[in-house]
């Protein structure tokens, strides 16, 4: 694992505020861990990481805590390590995620007395129109915006227990789902499809929204599973190298 010292950013005139030092350390570590060059057998220590990044241990400690909350880092064998879920675990969690999300729409289809919270969905739709008009660059952290869309869509159907279950599933697959937002085409597809789904639900067209949501989550699953398979193969090769 080789990381250049965290640079000191200069604010861009009229642009968004530059990330703080702690945010830059977090982003540097996150990007390094997601690059595929770190073995899950490598213990992540504050001292070594701080020396490599050219910072004190405090922002590194905070970054590791955030990475642990993201699910990218886990505590194992008395230390912190890169988390790589098994292929079976990821498959099972995606199956759960799809079932929960689709249920939010099917329950409204099945019961004519139920309705989505339209103002909440309109506000969420407006947020995604903003992403369409001011396209963000590919970034793993975009997974947070994606999760907000899906939990809002589900919660607007009126069953908070479904939303809570989805939030738990999302936390367990977040580290791998981050790989879905590293290319322009996936960013474009996500934004476009979210707008289409939310617009259908706002207009009360639940049946076609259900089909669109099923296709959307299925496409994301295919991308994530493909990249997860690549990551797991790299993990296997790293483990074999460690054993030599």
From TrEMBL:
Protein name stated in the entry: GntR family transcriptional regulator
The residue ranges of the HTH gntR-type domain are 19-87
Organism placement in taxonomy: Bacteria, Bacillati, Actinomycetota, Actinomycetes, Micrococcales
The molecular function terms in GO held by this entry are: DNA-binding transcription factor activity; sequence-specific DNA binding
Keyword Nucleotide-binding belongs to the record: no
Positions of region (Disordered)? 1-22
InterPro entries on file? AsnC-type_HTH_dom, GntR_C, TF_FadR/GntR_C, Tscrpt_reg_HTH_GntR, WH-like_DNA-bd_sf, WH_DNA-bd_sf
Tell me which domain of life the UniProt entry assigns to the organism this sequence originates from: Bacteria
